[in-house]
Recover the amino acids of this structure.
C-alpha cells in the first residue's frame, strides 16, 4: 500500500513536470504499477529528433526496490539491448536508493543517451564502435535508427 | 428439311454415332477417373515449367549462382547459367542487403582515394536502383573525414540514387564509419541476409557471422585466397547479378 500512495504522489508530480524536460511519464489507467514514459532524443546526440518510448514495471515493494525499465522503441546504444530494450544502468540495479523517483530514473536514462558508457555494453556493436574511436560510425547508425524507428509524431511530448 | 428427307439412313446413323463418340470422349476428358486427373496435373506442371522464362525456371539455381551456399565453383561458371535471369528472382528470400560503396558502387576503394572525389560506376548504380525496388538496402562507406563523407554522398546523389522515390535510398540509410572494424560492426548490427563488399579483409572477418557475402574484386587471385561456403565472388556488381550490362 505504501508503494501505491508513493506512486500516486509521483503521478501528480509527473503531471506537473515542465514540458521542456523532454520527458513525459504516466501510469497505466488500470494499473499504477505499470508506467509508460517518452523521452525526447537529447539535442546534440544522434537521437535528436526522435521520441523513445519506455515501459516501467514497478514492483510491489517499491521504492525499496527499483523499477524494471525497458526501451520499447528500438535504440542503437551500447547500454541498451537492441532487441529486448533492456537498459544497463547502475541506479536500476545495485545503486538504487528509495530517494530516486520514476521521473528521475527517466532523466538518468536521458543522460545515459547523451553520455554512453561503452565499457559494459549490452549492444556489442555499438560498444565496439565507441571503444574503437569510431564516433562517425556510431552516430551514423544511431541516427539511421532514430529516423527509421523513433521519429513518429511525438504526441506524448507535445 | 429437304436435306434431312433426302439423306440416306446410313448417314443419319453415322451422325448420331459421331455425336455419341464426341460426347463419350468429352466425358472421359472432363470427368474421367482420378488417375487421368493426376496425369493432367503432371502435364500442367510440365507445361508451366516449359512456358517459364529460363531465368525463373532456375530461380533457386540462380540464387545460388549469385551467393553460393554449397559447393559451388568459384568464378563465373555458375553465374553463366543464369544469364538474363531477373535480379528480383536472385534476391528471392533476401529482405535486407548491406553494400560497402567503395569498390562496389564507386571506383575508389580506399578512404584516402575518396578524398579527391568519388566516381559512381553506372552499371552498378543501375543494379542498385533495381535492388532498391524490392529490398531494404543500406549503403556504407569507410571514409577518413567529412570530406570523404561528402564526396561519397555527392556521387550517390549525382547518380539520382538518393531520395524517397522508387529506386532511391533514404539519405540516412547511407552510413559512414572511420574505421574498418567499424564497418564490420555496422554490418553485424544490421544483420542483413546479404552483405556486398570489395574489401577482402572485411569479407573474411564477416564470413563467420553473415549468412551470405559477395566479394567484388577484379582480381581473380582474391577468389583463390578466400574460399568460404557463404562467400561468392564477382568482378563487378552487374556481373554478380547477371544483368548483362
Amino acid at each position: 500500500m505504501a508503494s501505491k500512495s508513493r506512486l500516486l504522489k509521483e503521478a501528480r508530480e509527473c503531471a506537473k513536470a515542465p514540458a521542456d524536460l523532454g520527458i513525459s511519464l504516466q501510469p497505466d489507467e488500470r494499473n499504477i504499477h505499470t508506467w509508460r514514459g517518452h523521452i525526447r532524443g537529447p539535442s546534440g546526440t544522434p537521437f535528436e529528433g526522435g521520441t523513445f518510448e519506455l515501459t516501467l514495471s514497478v514492483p510491489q515493494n517499491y521504492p525499496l526496490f527499483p523499477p524494471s525499465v525497458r526501451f520499447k522503441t528500438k535504440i542503437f546504444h551500447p547500454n541498451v539491448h537492441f532487441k529486448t530494450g533492456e537498459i544497463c544502468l547502475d541506479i536500476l540495479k545495485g545503486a538504487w536508493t528509495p530517494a530516486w523517483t520514476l521521473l528521475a530514473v527517466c532523466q538518468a536514462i536521458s543522460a545515459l543517451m547523451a553520455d554512453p558508457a561503452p565499457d559494459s555494453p549490452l549492444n556489442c556493436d555499438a560498444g565496439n564502435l565507441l571503444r574503437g574511436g569510431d564516433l562517425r560510425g556510431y552516430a551514423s547508425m544511431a541516427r539511421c535508427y532514430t529516423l527509421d524507428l523513433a521519429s513518429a509524431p511525438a504526441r506524448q511530448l507535445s | 428439311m429437304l436435306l434431312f428427307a433426302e439423306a440416306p439412313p446410313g448417314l443419319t446413323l453415322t451422325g448420331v454415332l459421331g455425336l455419341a463418340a464426341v460426347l463419350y470422349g468429352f466425358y472421359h476428358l472432363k470427368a474421367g477417373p482420378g488417375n487421368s486427373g493426376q496425369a493432367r496435373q503432371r502435364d500442367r506442371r510440365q507445361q508451366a515449367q516449359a512456358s517459364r522464362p529460363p531465368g525463373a525456371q532456375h530461380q533457386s539455381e540462380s540464387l545460388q549462382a549469385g551467393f553460393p551456399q554449397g559447393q559451388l565453383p568459384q568464378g563465373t561458371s555458375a553465374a553463366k547459367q543464369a544469364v538474363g535471369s531477373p535480379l528480383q528472382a536472385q534476391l528471392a528470400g533476401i529482405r535486407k542487403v548491406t553494400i560497402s560503396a567503395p569498390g562496389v558502387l564507386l571506383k575508389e576503394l580506399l578512404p584516402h582515394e575518396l578524398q579527391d572525389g568519388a566516381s559512381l560506376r553506372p552499371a552498378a548504380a543501375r543494379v542498385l536502383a533495381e535492388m532498391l525496388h524490392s529490398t531494404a538496402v543500406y549503403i556504407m562507406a569507410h571514409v577518413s573525414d567529412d570530406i570523404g563523407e561528402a564526396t561519397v554522398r555527392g556521387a550517390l546523389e549525382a547518380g539520382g540514387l538518393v531520395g524517397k522515390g522508387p529506386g532511391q535510398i533514404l539519405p540516412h540509410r547511407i552510413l559512414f564509419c572511420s574505421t574498418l572494424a567499424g564497418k564490420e560492426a555496422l554490418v553485424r548490427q544490421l544483420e542483413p541476409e546479404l552483405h556486398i563488399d570489395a574489401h577482402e579483409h572485411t569479407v573474411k572477418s564477416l564470413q563467420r557471422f553473415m549468412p551470405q557475402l559477395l566479394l567484388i574484386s577484379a582480381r581473380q587471385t582474391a577468389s583463390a585466397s578466400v574460399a568460404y561456403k557463404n562467400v561468392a565472388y564477382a568482378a563487378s556488381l552487374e556481373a554478380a547479378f547477371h544483368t548483362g550490362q
